[in-house]
Each structure stands twice: as C-alpha cells, then as structure tokens.
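Retro notes (design track)

What went well: tokenization of the new backbones is finally stable.
What didn't: we kept losing track of which sequence belonged to which structure.
Fix going forward: every design gets posted as structure first, then sequence, in one message. First example under the new rule, 331 residues:
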C-alpha cells in the first residue's frame, strides 16, 4: 500500500483556522546547528533507527503511519530501560493500520495518543530524541514502501527548531490549542505552510527543482506559473498514478515547466515532498517536509517541514531529484 495517496481525508477540520504565520527565513549560517540529509531508498532506515536507539532520556514521535516492527521494538525497549517514550498516531485516516502498533506500544509501556481528530489528519512524521535532536521526515514507518519509494529526512540539532517541535508536540499530545512556533526554519500546517511555500517559490530567481506526491493546490500552481513567466527554470518530478494530476501538469508544461512523472502502484514511487530554489546561488534554499501541494495538506492537516540552506542537504536533494527526473517518464 502506498502511503497517503489513495486516502485523501474528506472531512473538514473542526478547529477554527489559525491566522497564517510569517514564512521562516532560512539562515545559511545557523551557528552550531547541524543538518544531516537521509535519502531513501538509497540509505535505508539505519540512520533513523540509530537516532531512535541513541536516546538516553526521551523520545517523542508523531507519525502518520506506523507498521514497522523494528521501530516499535526500539521504542518499547527504550521504554523498558526507563526512557520516556511518547508517540502520537493518526486516527482519522490510519487508525485501522496504526492499531497494531498502538497496542504493541501500549503493552510496552509507551505513552501513546491518538492524534487530535480536529485536524483532517495528522500527516506529520517527526522524531525528537532527548529534546535535542529532531528528524523531520517525508517518510512513514511502513516497511513495504522502503525499498521502492523516494523519500527524505533531515536530522537536525537546531535548538530553536527542536524547542518549537517539542512545544507543539506537548500541546498535540493533549489536544491543547497551539499556534506552533516556527523556530528558525519550521513550516507547519495548518498555520504557515502555504505562506512559506509560496514565499519560497515566489522568491526564486533562477531555478526551482521540485519533488511531489500530490498536486492540486491552485495557489502553488499559480506561483509556479508566475515563476515560469519571469524566466525561472522549473523542473518537477511528480507522482501521477492514474493521471490524477495531469490537468495541473498540462498547464505547467504549457507554461514551460520540465516535468517527469512516475505512475506505478507497485514500482518506484515518488513520496518525497521537496522544493529546492536557486540551487548553486547565494540565495539557495530547500524545503523538505510532510506537506503535499494540496489545500487539505496545507490548510487542514497537522504537518511539519522546514526551509533551510544547508549546502550538503541541498546537494543531496539536487542529486536525488535530478536522478528521478532522468529516469522518469517525460510528461
């Protein structure tokens, strides 16, 4: 089963919309902060398992889909060793698929919370260890997808971002109302994700390299059309199972975008959500996160990504998306 695509949430979120936050400003010199890009399926899950296993005091995880028994074993083992382990799992879309993990974790003395039903779904995929290091991911813990799915994770110790992630986790774990703090780089749904992504696209002056699973948001489409009109080179790698996103792709192609698609339910699958703007210039910035280019994802779900300017991460994403473009079917 491919993550997310067949199951777009239909219900509207019941909480009142929060006013948009300003877009984060990526800082190319963030002091002591470090960023490590994990590229899937190339690197496998070892970097993520190692992060979980490194915990000495605490693990906080928000996960849309969790069926990976190695991950649940690491979590229950940590709890057995006295580490405080808390997990938020989506229930609006994935309760049936997450129930086995919920039961295993609960039996293993992990504190597990069904995500706030006020969101259309909780599509976020984040791990924080010892309140000091966070992995912000596009991937779910679903082993059937690991070998053939393009995904990314960014592991960072950026103190402002980790503190903001933890503050939001604490609120979400009790269904408390919160406008998530953006720290230095964070992109949250349903608050600032739309404005942050639009600012990233609108600020591009040379190039945009994009990987997306889902694309129906008219605001993002219009921003890309405007970028093409001002001479920005737009390259898009898009999952397009069943031709679902062909209308927007036709429009962007007519405007001059270079597009490659993947469309196999059982073969290589584009699940990554990434935007690399102005690669190779002093203005370069990178988005990686759980947000798809859909109104549901940007305005109704709980989601998390980040916009930052780490050179090694940008180089890794550029290499991966370029490889995907070269082997995809040109649209």
């Amino acid at each position: 089963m491919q993550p997310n695509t067949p199951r777009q949430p239909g219900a509207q979120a019941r909480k009142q919309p929060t006013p948009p936050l300003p877009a984060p400003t990526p800082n190319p010199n963030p002091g002591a902060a470090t960023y490590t890009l994990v590229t899937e399926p190339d690197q496998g899950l070892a970097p993520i398992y190692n992060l979980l296993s490194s915990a000495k005091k605490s693990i906080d995880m928000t996960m849309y889909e969790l069926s990976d028994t190695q991950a649940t074993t690491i979590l229950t083992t940590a709890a057995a060793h006295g580490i405080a382990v808390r997990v938020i799992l989506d229930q609006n879309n994935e309760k049936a698929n997450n129930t086995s993990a919920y039961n295993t974790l609960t039996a293993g003395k992990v504190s597990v919370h069904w995500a706030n039903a006020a969101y259309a779904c909780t599509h976020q995929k984040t791990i924080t260890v010892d309140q000091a290091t966070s992995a912000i991911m596009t991937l779910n813990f679903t082993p059937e997808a690991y070998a053939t799915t393009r995904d990314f994770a960014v592991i960072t110790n950026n103190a402002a971002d980790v503190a903001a992630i933890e503050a939001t986790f604490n609120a979400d774990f009790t269904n408390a109302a919160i406008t998530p703090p953006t720290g230095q780089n964070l992109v949250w749904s349903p608050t600032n994700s739309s404005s942050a992504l639009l600012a990233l696209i609108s600020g591009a002056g040379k190039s945009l390299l994009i990987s997306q699973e889902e694309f129906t948001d008219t605001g993002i489409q219009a921003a890309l059309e405007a970028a093409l009109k001002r001479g920005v080179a737009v390259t898009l790698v898009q999952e397009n199972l069943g031709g679902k996103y062909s209308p927007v792709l036709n429009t962007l192609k007519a405007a001059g975008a270079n597009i490659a698609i993947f469309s196999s339910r059982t073969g290589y699958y584009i699940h990554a959500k990434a935007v690399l703007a102005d690669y190779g210039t002093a203005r370069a910035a990178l988005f990686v996160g759980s947000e798809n280019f859909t109104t549901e994802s940007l305005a109704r779900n709980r989601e998390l990504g980040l916009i930052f300017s780490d050179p090694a991460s940008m180089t890794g994403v550029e290499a991966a998306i370029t490889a995907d473009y070269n082997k995809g079917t040109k649209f």
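Added context from the reviewer: The first strand starts at residue 35 and ends at 40.
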